[in-house]
Amino acid sequence: MTEETKAEPTAEPLPAARLAEPIVLVETPEDWVAALERLSNGSGPLAVDAERASGFRYSQRAYLVQLYRRGGPNYLVDPIAVGDLSGLSEQLGHEEWIIHAAHQDLPCLREVGIEPTVIFDTELAGRLAGLPRVGLQGAVEDLMGMTLAKEHSAADWSTRPIPDPWLTYAALDVELLPDLRDILGDILVERGLSEIAQEEFDAALSAPTPPPREEPWRRLSGLHQVRGPRQLAIARSLWQARDAYARQIDRAPGRLVPDRSLVAAVLAQPKSAKELASLKAFHGRASRSELPRWWAAIEDGNATEDLPQARVNSGGLPPPRVWAEKNPEAAARLTAAKAAMDGLSKDTGIPLENLLTPEHLRRVCWEPPRPVTKETLSRDLANRGARAWQQEAVVPLLLDAFVALDQ
Questions:
Q1: Residue 379 sits in the same domain as residue 233
Q2: Contact 166, 160 (CB under 8 A)
């Protein structure tokens, strides 16, 4: 066999991550008191994670909270059985907490009384460090040289008792965080990004809760097929009936009747409950057992005089692909700004979307403050939520781009 025909050597598979510390289940208030005492006597940052039952339950509550400090066991806490976990914040709130993708876990942690004051977000740190993969599995493989199985990430964590393989998976999610934090921390120091990272971590902690959508039913998948105010009213009524029932029994709405089934019922325009029941496209676990509920919703939609508008002005900007036609000056500003920021992204290794939130960039390009100065641009971005480091990094680029186009 010649050199040209020799096969490339196959890379050795990475070893699987293995637990180094035991698992301790915390399922009673007494267990929780003992766990808090042990955690309080530990050292180093506190690794925190939470597991929900998205896709199975209506709520986004935490069904498992994982806690770990080096040298101690992995505490897996059942917040449903234990109740209020605010003692963790009271006793360890002064410590740094390591969380991966804090924006995902903070809401459900706060629901059970857990409120950190200082965090290190390993996902955000990975983004700032320019990692090719910022999910926990990818970061562990790339930086720690081991595989982390994620087959239980979408499991129904409201299941009791929790299967042993799931517990091991959950414990690894926190036991590996301190080492991952140290590696990422060193990378941030080497690149001079530590202060920027802390700004991002603080912003994640203080981010406001998004307001509820005014008409959440309009997110019904397949709604674009529905035509006319009356059909929209029926779709709205079905969505609201399903949502109310799902909330009542704490089940994911789509597991009761899928979106496509609701839309199919609207399009079929059944004349009776019997006709609705005979519709093959109308299926789901509760499609027949709750048939009177769905038929009542259809009747309400047919009878209401409160007809929804066919289209709603969301207040958002048009997609950039049509800017050249609708607002050519804004299109030119966006093109110039992206080119300048792309260069900065390559120089710093910070992804473009982390240099400045894309929506902030689009809005300032669509309608920049007048007059365009460093001060007005900084104020505009600050009002939209841009951090101080982002303003310092991108305002000079935006100013040069905007001024050059105005000349």
A1: no
A2: no
Least confident of 7-16, 49-58, 100-109, 149-158: 7-16
H-only helix segments in 57-163: 79-82, 87-92, 102-111, 122-128, 136-144
Q: pLDDT tens digit string along 338-382?
A: 999 999 999 999 999 999 999 999 999 999 999 999 999 999 999
As beta bridge partners, residue 46 has: 97
Average pLDDT of the chain is 94
| Tens digits of residue pLDDT in 52-80 | 999 999 999 999 999 999 989 999 999 99
Helices 229-249 and 259-268, packing angle to 10 deg: 140
CATH (domain of 93): 3.30.420.10
What's the structural domain count of the chain?
Answer: 3
3-state secondary structure of 339: helix
Domain identity same for 280 and 198? no
d(CA 62, CA 106): 10
Q: For residues 332 and 337, what is the distance between their CA atoms, to the nearest angstrom?
A: 8
| Position 315 in a domain | no
CA distance linking residue 26 with residue 32, whole number of Å: 6
Domain match, 41 and 79 both? yes
In a domain, 58, yes or no: yes
344 shares its domain with 401: yes
Question: Which residues have C-beta within 8 Å of that of residue 248, sequence separation ≥ 6?
Answer: none
Cis check for the bond before 371: say yes or no (omega within 30 of 0). Answer: yes
Helix axes 388-406, 374-384, angle to 10 degrees: 130
Residues 59 and 151 grouped into a single domain: yes
| Rounded (10°) angle between helices 388-406 and 328-348 | 130
Domain that holds residue 170: 23-206
